[in-house]
Amino acid sequence: MCHVIVTCRSMLWTLLSIVVAFAELIAFMSADWLIGRAKPSNSEDGDNRTGGSQEPYHPTLGIYGRCTRISHMQFSRRDTLCGPYAENFSEIASGFWQATAIFLAMGIMILCTVAFVSVFTMCVQSIMKKSIFNVCGLLQGIAGLFLILGLILYPAGWGCQKAISYCGPYASAYKLGDCSLGWAFYTAIGGTVLTFICAVFSAQAEIATSSDKVQEEIEEGKNLICLL
């Protein structure tokens, strides 16, 4: 018989697991890892004859994507164009960024799997006498290690030609040059920290769902058990 067990700690762990997975996925897909040095708004097409505003903008560069601003001469209008600069994996600008993409992708896949499984822990708390919470916590710890490896390798790629074109000639491994870090990088770091918090908190979720109070509710024949 399926017993639906909901506790504050188990629900908090489930919500955090989902938030972490989405945060890392959004950061990975974003082009806002590096914010490039300021450029004139019409510098992308190399044509300054439009007489348009020279208000500077900051192009952004991600692991495999980028955002730039293009000018429409006939309308004196500027649009920001975002998309991948690499059509396939081998075209990613740096070998270090390729390794970053691999490690982050592996970590995110694990986190998404755990987030999906966490939704069903209200009904199923163990499989083959193994606590799902403990297994998921272990997987989250492994995912966190993958994320750390990816984030450590990412700055090593700042010396690639693509990064130099955005950050200036002084950019090199672990040196930003004229660039600054974007929100996606900080989101990835925050998500990594929360990943380890989730891994630790999974033990609390397991304790909460197997407490004496829960067992008493089960013995009373209740199928829906909600505890603070």
From TrEMBL:
Coiled coil: none
Gene3D superfamilies, per database record: 1.20.140.150
Family affiliation: Belongs to the LHFP family.
Membrane topology reported for the UniProt record: Multi-pass membrane protein
One CC-aspect GO term: membrane
Organism the protein comes from: Cnemophilus loriae (Loria's bird-of-paradise)
Location within or outside the cell: Membrane
Name of the molecule in the record: LHPL2 protein
Key words of the record: Fertilization, Membrane, Transmembrane, Transmembrane helix
Matches recorded under InterPro entries: LHFPL (IPR019372)
A Pfam family hit: L_HMGIC_fpl
Transmembrane domains' residue ranges: 12-35, 96-120, 132-154, 183-203
BP GO annotations: single fertilization
Main location: membrane
